[in-house]
## 1
Amino acid sequence: MQTRASHVVGRDREIAAVTGALSRTRESRGGALFLTGEAGIGKSRLARYAAGLAYDDGMRVIKGRGTTIGPMVPFRPIAEALLGLFRGDPPDDSALGPYKPVLGALIPEWHDPSSTTESVVVLAEAVLRLLASVARKTPCLLVLEDLHEADAETLAVIEYLADNLEDQPVLLLATIRTEPGNALELVRRMVQRGSGGLVELHRLSQDEVEQMTAACLEGAAVPAELVDRLWTDSAGNPFVVEELLHGMVSGGLLVAGAQGWQVLGELKLPVPAAFVRSVAHRTDRLGPQGREVLSIAAVLGHRFPLSVVQKVTRTDDRELLSHLHAGVAAQLVTPDEPAPDWYAFRHPLTADALLAQLAPAERADLSERTADAVEELHPGLPGDWCPLVAKLRFDAGAQTQAGLLFAEAGRRALAGGAAGSAVTLLDRAQQLLEHDVTARAEVLDTLLPALAETGDFERAFALDVAGLQALDASLRAKLHTRLSRVAYTAGWFTEGVEQVRIARTLLGPDAPDELTAQLDVNSAYLTLNIPSPDRISSAAGLAREAALAADRARLPTVACEAWQLLGIIAREQDLDEANACFGKALSLADAHRMPIQHVYALVRMAGNDWLQHGTTASLDRTHAEACRAGAITVAHNVDAILALQHVLTGDYAVAAEQIDRCLQTTTRLRFHALTRYLLMAKATLAAHRGDRAATDDAVGRFESVAKNGAQEHSLCFGLARAFCALLEENHRLAAAELDRALDVESQNPTTFHLSGTHGMRVLLGVLDGRFSWSDFEAQTAASAAGMRWNRQFTSLARAVLLGRDGRHAEAAEAFRCAQEAAAIYPMARHLGLRLVAPEAAGWGDPVTWLRSAEEYFHQAGNTAVASACRGLLRQAGAPVQQRRTGTDQVPRQLRGHGVTVREFEVFVLLADRMGNKAIGTRLHISPRTVEKHVASLIAKTGQPDRESLSAYAAALSR
């Protein structure tokens, strides 16, 4: 008979927690709930109960569990669960965009060989979006069992999901043993910060053991001595209760009679021997062959494939199935649905009990035979078979073979994006191969980049590569080259340069190209990020050497990296040369099937097209290509550029929404470089709206996350703060901000070219007389001056210089070119009109320009520039339209005193202790008019004198 409880006993509190979580999930308030407890305490039973409730309520239920076959297999629980979505109607993938190819790593139906390998965080975001898409139709329950068996990547995905399911109709329900380990620590951290709930299952009380016993035996009357014995021997563990009951019934110690259940004989059995004896008793009844079948299965793990067991035992199908059916009847194993031809032990303790009965020599022999069978059945050991056979070889005592297989499994895991699992496997490999210095070096060659991927940079440098003195110099140099790349990834640029120096010393002057190419390209990227006046030229020289060496040594990946960097560097001086470099990288990528390099080359060429022509058609096409390839980083890179384009073209509402949305994603995905770029774009957006407080706040956020020498820094001054100052009519401050941008770039040359040093700074320098023709020619010689955003300002500067020389027709043509370039940038175009109008009396139409600018800035709510335009119109003798709006900009306490908009403009400038002449110049009114406004302000605010009024203005502006 089935001595199993038909219902959950003694778990009222736990059931309430589960039902409450399911109820909230149906209201789109999902989250994570973790069931913890010792082995056999009932976690899986409660999870099955929850799944049943969810099914009954019409929810979608998908399940996965930690691998129990060999070492940890990356993403197994997640992949198993997601595959459940494809056993009926496949999920709608229309909302996944570029994240669909990323999921190909988990879902074979979506696998694309040309797609790129992204980080675990990106994969976690893809899983989140898929679950959200599924749950839009039907709330979803994701059940993941045995997290203590899960790999590091699965745990990272679970943490990401737990942090982001709060507003989704998705519940993550996971089980984990209360055994010390990374998984339990992670769960406790998530619960502590509020990213999930914790339900800890405790042992049953004696009364609950009695209830469970009655449920198992399907009878109300249970002998008291039986309950006492079960309570004593099981210590309240439900699984052990059932196992002991089954052993007693099958062994004839407990029988059903007319008066109910009766105990025959002595019940006393020690625990855990009681459980082991129970399992041994049942396996003995299966016969020698049946016991061998289950012993081989236990060697494989808690779940096992029939094909391997059959190969080892050399039994036919009928005999094998007969043994398995007997094992199922004995409640030792169960079919592992939905995997075909796989079985699993009913509980992990069952497999452990079987292994405990094997002598060491017997277990080693079974492990060796099983490893041989797997290798014969699966040549090359694809997928999960490689780490499984590595474990079997280890159990068989073949340490070198095991180490080499763990190393291969680690290399495969890293190539598949599972860096955490790669580190675990490679660590095991290097421990097993510690006496073979060459084999260990090969392991370190993969372990170092794996540690960089996981962010464990300090441990990478603690591996004591320098101590491998017995290793060939070229192999040691290769490891130091790897360390230089680790240092670059970590942002430890100076340490990276030191690793390059060590590698060059080891290689000597006549090193072959295949060793120097990667070293040179690493050095180029490091040099570009170390602040110095010549970093651009030095990086270019190194990159060119790397490209040539890589070409000779036929290293296409290194050559692509070098040509990409050369293209980035060439942008400032020659866009055509930059495109040629990117074209070479693209050709190499296509010839050698390197999808990520292909997409990067495309996006950089599209970026050049955007810079030169101001159009985004190429970027849009590249974005679509990146989405198809699953190149998430590239896709978000394009999104960031498009967000900045919306700022420059005056689509401020669209820009604000896109910047905030992208920032949420890049922050969540830890794309630090893109986060910096977007914060710069956010500062630019605020500045172009004339919002000083928001500009300073965004720049402050940028500086809080940016490292010294961040290449976007100069844009914060020249593209953001300088324009904010111009919209405040503070031209002196604007010039100072642009000079600061130039100073930053002179100390740390940048590969970004919209900071104003090739555009607005040239125009302001010409207007205030600092720049003559020779200065102008020097400032505009680089190709960056011809980029469309910069070109609108340099063309205006040319027009002013031509007009001053009396070359009016040429000045008008230069102005026309400026307007053509500025056509898509409304704010910049009208600001340019306001700036050059005072210079255009002989060759332009300043009155018309000022009226256009005044109307634009008035509608935009920028009173400072609109007021300046009206002042210039008055000076030109033109009639000026009166504007009576803008009072909302006057603080409430000043409006209560009757302060007008114009008086408030004077009041704001008084905070800086400016004199009447300086205020008049700023507002384009006479000093005498300023004096009248000051007198009126003193009277209206009740201040005793001008000094007190200035102090009041300064205090109010804080």
## 2
Amino acid sequence: MYKARRLLLLLCLASCTLVLFGQSPVIKGTIYDELEMGVIGASVRLKSNPSKGTASNLDGVFTINAQPGEILVFSYVGYKTVELPAKNGMVVRLEPDAKQLEDVVIIGYMPRKVTNTSASVVTVKADQLSNKPVANPLDAAQGKVSGLQVFSSSGEPSARLSIALHGQGSLGAGTAPLFILDGMPVTESVIQAMNPNDIESIQFLKDAAATSIYGARAANGVVYITSKRGSAGERVSTTFRAQYGVSSLANTDYFDQLMTADELLRYYVETNIYSAEEVENFKENLFKGNDFQWYRYIYQNAPMFTTDVSVSGGSGRTAYYLSGGLMTQEGLRMGSSYRKAFGRVNLNTEFSDWIRSGLNINASYDKTQTSPFGGNNLSGGGIAAINPPFITPFDMETGEVLEYVPILGITSPEHTIKTNPSANNTFILAANGNLTITPLRHLVIRSMAGLEISYGTVMNRVLPSYRKAYGIGSASRAYQGAINFSTTNTASYTMDFGGSDHRLTSLLGQEYVRYGNDGFSASGVGLLDDRLKLLGNLTKDYGLAESNLAYSFLSFFGQFAYEYSNRYFVDLVLRNDASSRFGANKRNGLFWSAGFLWKAKNESFLKGVDWIDLLDVKASYGTQGNSAIPPYSTESYVGNVGRKMGEVSLGFFTYGNPDLTWEKQSKLTVGAKGRFFDCVEINLEYYNRLTTDMLFDVPISYSSGLPPGSLGFVTRLENVGAYQNQGIDLRLDLDLLKGRDYWLSSYLNFNYNRDKVLELFNGRTEWYDPSLRFAYIVGQPVTYVLPVYKGVNPQTGKPEWYEPGADKGVLTKDDNKLVTEWSSSLEQNTGIPVYTPMTGGWGLQGRYKGLYMSADFAFAIDKHTISMDREYFENDALVRNRNDNLNGSRQLFDYWKKPGDVATYPSLEYLRDPQRPHKSNYLDTNMLQNATFMRMKNLTIGYEVPAEDLAPLKVIRSAKIYFAGRNLLTFTKFQGIDPEVNRSVTIGANPNTKQLSVGVELGF
């Protein structure tokens, strides 16, 4: 019995021991980087079971269940992976990995380390895109990428950006870059509809080595957007963000030049528009001391709010990222707003070691209202600012807004908006799925299918109660739907040989893209009651319209990359595209590129040079194509041109061109990149971009019988001419300060681009576009054509213009050949380039413990725009008109008064000549303004709460609070409303805005 009890006791003790040993103890430690700073988010996994792991917190501290002595694997992007035996209180120090510090970029259809490719690629990362007070994610890229021009031409919250890479590549076809989201080609609408906080990175592919793999659509560069992902085995991470801000005008300098009420009344008396007695009577009986600033009424401060929640993580072999949110932003100009709701689902899973798949879905719904006032509308447009300051849109007795301002003869903006309701609603779904199979080691077969669906409706009403409708309203509705389908199949193989000194990666692929668009609209007149506003209540002038179009691409391509001894790299690309936009005999285009990279630092003679950290030399040359023209341009079309004896008369609308084919582009890029003294990095590139067989509207004879087109004359699309852009890109990065818990760095981007027309059509050496005031002259940039203004003659007080010479393509400024009357016949080549030659940006980023900041500036140098604002804001003819009673700039006081005066404006005798009255400004080089500017595009100041302060809360893992500003400062001498407008002519623009916002970000 005793022995049996001893045996039972031993068995119990053994069972307890096994249970205890089955419970792995908690191992706690800290991970530091080379600066002895805690590494946030480093991965810690069991080597024996990689599916079990954790991540370090904000201080680099981690905890994991593991047996003492069990091997743990520590990894973090940009650092060498470390394997150490587990022990409590362990300290892990990670060392930077020069190879991993460089980004992984997508070159064509396979990921590559940017250090190992000859391609020119610039990456804007998530931290530079997130938490910005702006609707369009691409806005944050302005000034960040050398060679990339990003301009915002409107303050409308829903406005698109103007984007160009290395100049305007074409004089007739489209110049927008190709947008790719997670491997799928998409329209820019998808990018604008996204949540900027869902973007992991935006890569800008600039040279032929990077873009030729995309062939026909890559002539203007490629913008590759990668959305965020979860990680398999990662614990669930939830992030909540909220941001509130207020928008106001980015720059009011030009508005502030307008005369006050006292100044305007003084101008009336001084220039004899009204007598002193009349002005006193106005003051006492009519105006009663008003000094109203109309621009502050037209552009009212507007709120913006955005919030989103994201959840990411992974379990087993599956990773996920989910997010959703909404944004509302009111426009400054009355009647404009932008609201959008968005959501994203990204799933990635590994079914086995050799097969995996992914699914990416982005959905958005937006409601857009744009201001109903055009730029030159006096009720609520840009020039409404010149309404006289002594008149207001309010009832002087009650303070209520008037429907009609009697002295000015205009309706108030509130009345116009209320009685002209409009809405624009759009739903966009962008989804793609991929399947990747690795049947053999180093062999990867991948198939992807993508679908972009957009559905939009537009509604406009003019209610009968609108004062200018005179009791008869109108209505219109429109629908537009589009489907963009794409499928891509690739197979790649990587092989090492020659003792691993040689590596060859090859990829073969096929791609198909089809776009279809369908829409219709209905309109009419005759609404008689504000409550009866559906189309069925219209009574006359019915209108119906329908549209549809489609086009497709079929492509086959190959991509080859060779590497020798981590020193020499060669990239080769070959692609054939077929496009339905061209005739059957001209559909195919063959494009190719070759690139070379030499990593000089890895040579034996430089390895020992400590002050050189990196030295790369690269070159590439290749071809791309451009097919950005309307579909069906190769076909001739007839349509209804009238009726005769009750029968429809048919006539030609267009003459097709069956020989039309690809616009071709070749591009050479040579560059060098170096990092020195572990603190200075320089990247310098030269490029030469040549476009031939341009898709250009060539004028043909009126005897063709075709109606004039948008240019005012009959044209046909042809392949003609040649056009060049060449320049340099410079990127400079400086690490100014580095310490254990602080750092400060700065950057500078600069691009100089010069364009040149090399060849035109039909043997011409000059061509003038009368609608745009452009000159295309062989051997010169595209330039403005205008009368050349000399100034006001100090002796006579009359304005003077130079007479053009026999060849108006040559600038002639002969002081002995001057005229004092303006006419369009004085137009000549100004020699001033249309396209901005110099752009760039600079900035600072820094951190001290929990405090962080970033400031980014963008600039454009020698940018020129015809400021038609001056014709309204600086015009005595409008101020002296007693019917309109408009305001003007106080600069109008600087008119010529006596011989010897150096004045801005002519004498009153000239301006008010009863036989031939004149304006203060005409369309000439005096209106062609230098729109050089620099703006503070971003200022972010924030504080990240230390992890130990959040520890008692348990639920909250991280917390940030920040201030974010956009366009806070503007430096310019531009005489106009907004220097950033990227059009040749600007008038009453809805100007850019600045935002002041505060936000919070919480991690759970």
## 3
Amino acid sequence: MFSYKSRYCVAAAMAAMAALTGHVEARDIDLQSIGYFQFSPLPPSLVSQTDTLLLSDSPEYVGPVGGTLSAGTINGNGRIYFYHVNEMDLPHKIAIVLENQTAYPTSVHVMRQLKSVATPDYFAAGRDLSRKDLEQPLNESPDARPLYTLSIPPQGRQLIFSDLENTPVNRDALFTGIVDIKTEGPIFARVMMLPMGMDPVDASHWVKNLPIDEIQLRGTYTGAKRNMEVTTPFDTSLGGAFVEIGNDREDTFINGVDEMQNKAFVRDRGNYGVSYTLKIPTKGNEPFRLYFNPLGGPYSGSFTVKTLHQQGARRGQTDTRTYHIGGADGISALGEGTILDSRLLGNYNAGDLLTLNFMPAGASNLPIRFLLIPESLANPQKHQTIAVNVPKDVKDILGNPTQGGTQIPVGPVGGKDGDKGSVDTKKSTVESPAKRAETIAHEETKKLSDKAAADVKKEAQLKKAKDEKEALARKKAEEARLAAEKAEMLRKAAEAKHAEIERKMAEKAEAERKAEEARKAEAARKAEMARIEAARKAEADRLEAARKAEEARLAAEAKRLEEERRIEAARIEAARKAEEERKAAEAKARFEAQRAAEKAALEAKKAEEERLAAEARARLEAQRKAEQEALEARRAEEARKAAEAKAALEAQRAAEQAALEAKRQEDARRAAEAKAALEAQQIEAARKAEEARRAEEARKAEAARIAAEARKAEQERLAAERAEAERQAAEARRLAEERYKAQLEAERKAEAARQQALAQAEIERKAKERAEAIQRVRDQQESARRRAELARQQLEAERKAAQASKRTPSFSELDDIHGDTSNVTIPNAVSIDELTKPRPTASQNTRRREQRQPQLSPNQQYVQINPVANEPQQDQMPYTPQNEQQNDEENPPKLYPLD
């Protein structure tokens, strides 16, 4: 949908880019000429954010197969926002299925359903949904009527937004939409892309969850509705200002969890699916304009501006108007390749309270700005004129005839000098019209001349300021381009670092998961061994108990025979006394029968209450102690077997005692039975009637009690579930914050390590440069030493040559002609002077001897001798590489011959 990574960093460079690429401007005002880059910021503050948002935008491009795109829990007011492109060959559909995962039925009220057109034009789809969101606003009043209501049974699933079943999404088409719902309990919602004709409810049981893409725009968030307000009113007397939205600074992105990834931390980068309400108060004395200005890239969507007039004749009245960017206005989107595009959103008066409603449009880019520009800054050339009634026969100061009703410009509208050119026509009765008109014309001519001179000067100043602004803008554009390149490099480095951190975290999580699995396997193995050992001990205990029970049975049998003999003797004695006790027994039997009946009824009622209470406690205990069920079952089984053996023994003993007692009382009963039969029947009938009445009352009371306990238990369970859900959400938020802090700390440490590495590299580089400089100094010293040695050798050779020339005899000494020798004339003879006389050559016949270059032999060429090598080195500056470069430039080396 949107890439926020570097758009804001390169925003300032887009203007220069547009000039180079031939961008077609879509501007309602020239922002650069009115000082756009000097506008004051008006930071908005967050007032509130409510309701749950289930965002479904990752994977944005669905293919090669469909499946579950996003899923999450909504409890209360919530919104489902989907945005997907079909990359499969066949048409598919979007389906939304709600699941009730609780044990009680839940109602869901569908408040609003919106869908865009399915089209390959991404801007058209996002623009269409943005417009429908404002044209069909959500009714947030308490008595709002839903479109329809669903009742979902426990563990049941139902489809909502059935219109999507008949909306095919073709290949490469974008489809986006919104569903606003209100639930009476937690509901798990799924957004799926399925082939046409497939049953969504049935498919929701088996379709696969599709992995999230790199943008990571899906999950469950808090903040589907965001209210913001500018705390500092816009003052029209202070120049232009702007309110910036979607920059993740003043207007931060909302955080959430992805329930399809074990509640992993996610961010809605762009706050897509969030409905904004932005309030901007104003003050001052001048009207102003409101402009929309995209910063992050192309934008195409709708905005509603509600105006509350707080001054003037319309005080307390409101106006509402909706503005559409893109589509009908002839452009696909505003802000392509530039940050200077703008669109007018109306004219307003100072003091108006502006309330903007919008939702970030799909396929568009953030951040965006709302510009507030005073009218004098937006239109500085606007003037007003007044009509001066001058008689036709009056001439102006130049002697030219005037026209009646001449229009004379008098200055800007609403300006401080707006009344300087006004004419008081009331004095025309005192002064003559001709004189008055001449005076007015003279004054106006002077004003016009002064104004023309001021306009020329102002135009020159404006031109100069414009040139300076253009130069500054070019400089800023270049700086922005360099900053953008640097930011892109830093972003790539950060992405690589983030990927490395994620890889290490994934490896660590995998290692922890394997360790946890190994620990669980070891615990399961130990539990199984403990269970086998417990079973063995239980079997041994059972055999021991059986042996003891058999011994007890034999002892009991012997005791029973002895008891029978004693009872027989006692029976004979009892038969004698039975007649005496019969009368007392009859009265006592009646009393005992009645008391036993009442006692039996009470015990039955108590037993029933205990049984129902035990069942309720057992159900609650079973839910709370599900993990201990196996162990308790084994213990119960062992206790049951032991109890059965004990009960069997006790039952046998009780049966024998009961048989003896029954045999003893049989004779007395038979004697009293005939007489008490009639009375017993009457008592029994009365008892049964009373018992039936009491049983009915007990049953009703028990039913009411059970229902009350069930309601109370359900309320406690729901409260416990809500508390557990809140605890888990808080834990997820805490874990997400800890992970985020850990990530930030890791990035900080990595940045510190990188800075330390850069510092170390810089130290090493400087050390290397110093070593190279030292080596160059040594090489130069060695070269100077060689040159000095060569110069010394040359001087020594010249000295030896000079000495040799001094010792050679002169021509006069070698001349063998003496004074006493007669002169001999030799024809055509050449003297020594003539032979040694220098003669000009072809290359030197224009210069004197001292100006000629010495002729070098082949082995004397191209040897560099420093001419200052043998000069004194006093007051010499310390050597540095910069000195070397300067010396080489100012005194290039010369060529000297070798000896």
